[in-house]
Amino acid sequence: MTQLMKHPDVKRSFQSYVTDAAYKCDNPKCGRYSVVSWYTDYDPSDHYRSGEPEEYDRTVIWSPPPIKRPEYPDVPDHIAKAASEAWVCFAHSSYIAACAVARSVIEAAAKSFGITVRGIEAKIVALNEKNLIWGDLVASAHLVRQFGNDAAHGDIVEPVTVGEAEDVLDIMDALLHQLFSTPARALRLEASRQQRRDQTG
Q: What number of other Cβ atoms are within 10 A of residue 75's Cβ?
């Protein structure tokens, strides 16, 4: 992120300061703009200050908020878009929505392998029976299902925490990695190896 102005806009409010600054994302695939506001007990415009939010500042608010943006190049487009949407929900603190979308991603992934049995629980079982997922990932997928079901069926008396939502999405990513990324990477490596063997005779 690159700050657009050398000196941020600082306003004094009683015994504290409110500062605003605009940034542009350095990623050429993004290039979007963000605004940050932060609250301090000192004047960030002092000449010896960086003019940017510091780790010790008590409140820092980005708009839009920073978003973890995993890339899913080997995942079918409709599933990849939904997975990215789950992370957007997470970034905006919409943790219930993030869990609901993660559940949908897992069910859509199963369908992409021709698994059409009724219900997501049966689909996860079928993924395991086809040896597409195994071990701890099976139990983890069921946890995503349960959090997603809670969101879908209104069992939300106890709020989903930021840690729980992040774990749910990390499991979602792990499942997509297992189902799509690892096999695709293996195929690319095998093709590259075969090409090298063909060239050397």
A: 25
